[in-house]
Amino acid sequence: MTTTTDTTRAEICAVACAEIFSGAGEIMASPMATLPSIGARLAKLTTEPDLLLSDGEALLMAETPALGDKGAIEGWIPFRKVFDVVASGRRHVVMGANQIDRYGNQNLSAFGPLQHPTRQMFGSRGAPGNTINHATSYWVPKHSSRVFCEQVDIVCGVGYDKIDPSNPAFRYLHIHRVVTNLGVFDFGGPGHTMRALSLHPGVTADEVAANTSFEIAGLHEAEPTRYPTDEELRLIREVIDPRGIRNREVPQ
Amino acid sequence: MRDKRTTLDEAVGELRSGMTIGIGGWGSRRKPMAFIRALLRTDITDLTVVTYGGPDLGLLCSAGKVRKAYYGFVSLDSPPFYDPWFARARTSGAIEAREMDEGMLKCGLEAAAARLPFLPIRAGLGSDVMNFWGDELRTVTSPYPDSNGQVETVVAMPALRLDAAFVHLNLGDAHGNAAYTGVDPYFDDLFCMAADRRYLSVERVVSTEELVKSVPPQSLLLNRMMVDAVVEAPNGAHFTLGANDYERDEKFQRHYVESAKDAATWQEFVEQYLSGGEDDYQAAVRRFAQEGTR
User: Fold this and answer.
1) Cross-chain residue pair B72–A124, CB shorter than 8 Å
2) Measured distance CA(B77)–CA(B54) in Å, rounded
3) What pLDDT score was predicted for residue A251?
4) Nearest to B257, CA basis, from B119, B67, B54
5) What's the 3-state SS for A165-220?
6) pLDDT at position A2 over 60
7) Of the four, A47, A91, A164, B134, which is 20 to 30 A from B128 by CA?
8) Which residues from chain A sit within 8 angstroms of residue B122, using beta carbons?
9) Minimum CA–CA partner of A171 in chain B
């Protein structure tokens, strides 16, 4: 087991992102940023060999190449077929977020009023469909109280307080994890509120509280996030991300 | 069989202000940019645009031609990702937004293609998509209870019926048969099937025989029933990626974004690239590329 000395924060995040997919089985993993991509590939190369991964465009990869490299393919997944996969539920997406609230509502659309925003981002993208159909997790490389806010401006990803319990159309909503540069969270707090599962080594509960606009359940009970194993470190450093792209997203 | 070949300007000359137009492609990928540039040369305005948005929507916003936009997202697909002209139209309140989930857009085109008033979809429930649309978007309750006796209520995605659709493909014949050569058809067939008038531009017009010999049958996305007009427009998706014909012109796309920053630089961009015909644009774009390699 590797310990403290040379493991970086980005490498700890990579393992936390890999664990998002623990037990996922034969589904499509759709990571939308660098660290979740490393995580999904790490999961596939260790405990989750049956995951399906695309090249980010329209091809399913048979191999698990380094970030940015091409390898052999095993299938075709153009955008229109992605929507079929979404509706089928056989997918776990890891999206980014400009805002997330305590119930897991997420915004990547715009800030301000719907028809007259103060800042325009992407629009809702696939967030409404992802969250209502299949497992969704979030990756936030810079945990701050601007991201983790009291109320999101525009609900793109659906949170737990939006569920209509009388309508079974909401039964597939599952926000699995939020991984940030500070820790690992879920929505297992009281009333499906955000809860701390672990804080990365060196991160204090006070640091997380100071960078979150609402109270996080279990913050003071959270254990340290585990270190990568020697094998995981080898895979991250030599196989998946030899160019060290992870350090741009999470500086040490 | 009818020869449907025409020019960019004649094609867009059939449009009227106030129409609802669908634009094929996706983000900054295989967008019918030559048609968009032709639209900028007209005085047509007050458009309702349905699109997986990219710089197509941005350029139309730059000319104040958009009144209402139906979109799943708007993205340039590479840094800085957010389209500057769409952002300005939104933050100034110039356009009415019918933002939706990406899957809802496909669903709405499929409803229109099948001449149905709506199709049920789960996406949108619980999100602010419902508030973007107000009364224009409603739910529908299943007549079939589930095994627990509960009934599901889902979004009734209305048909996205189009007056006109614009798409750009790689190869086509004079009659409207056409193929994509890259990895993704996007939704160009659905845009055509949802529209009354269907305008196709292609990199190259070839004989039907050459077309069907050049690609596998599965790549023949459009047939004659789906197309009214064919325009040969080489490099017609520039600066978005043109599948197997060319990559995205990242440097020029960045130039587009930087030029949008203030009135003077945008005026210069318009004068350089958008004040003549398509041939003038292509010549200016070649000069821009050469300047960078010197």
Assistant:
1) yes
2) 8
3) 86
4) B54
5) CCCHHHCCCEEEEEEECCEEEEEEECCCEEEEEEECCCCCHHHHHHCCCCCCECCC
6) no
7) A91
8) 87, 129, 132-133, 169, 172
9) B152
Spatial neighbors of A218 by CB under 8 A, at least 6 apart, are A189, A195, A196, A197
Planar angle of CA A138, A141, A145, nearest 5 degrees:
85
Whether A128 and B124 lie within 8 Å, measured CB to CB:
yes
Chain B hits for A95, Cβ within 8 Å: none
Answer yes or no: are the C-beta atoms of A128 and B124 closer than 8 Å: yes
Residues of chain B with pLDDT under 70: 293-294
Residues of A in contact with B101 (CB under 8 A): 124-129
Q: What gap in Å lies between CA A81 and CA A78, rounded to an integer?
A: 5
**What is the per-residue pLDDT across A6-63, written as a single tens digit (0 to 9) for each?**
999 999 999 999 999 999 999 999 999 999 999 999 999 999 999 999 998 999 999 9
Question: In a mutagenesis test of the A interface, which of B110, B125, B130 is the best target, namely the one with the most A β-carbons within 10 Å?
Answer: B125
**B185: distance to nearest CA of chain A, Å?**
7
Q: Residue A133 and residue B126: Cβ atoms within 8 Å? A: no
Which residues of B are less than 8 Å from A157 in CB distance?
127
Work out the minimum CA distance from B187 to partner chain A, whole angstroms.
7
Cross-chain Cβ contact B73/A120 below 8 Å: no
Euclidean distance between CA atoms B174 and B219, whole angstroms: 17
Q: Which residues of A touch B119 (CB under 8 A)?
A: none
Write down the pTM of the prediction. 0.97
* Residues of B in Cβ contact (< 8 Å) with A127: 101, 127
- B91 vs A120, A168, A170: nearest CB: A120
Q: Give the whole-number percent of chain A exceeding pLDDT 70.
A: 98
B142: nearest CA partner in chain A: A169
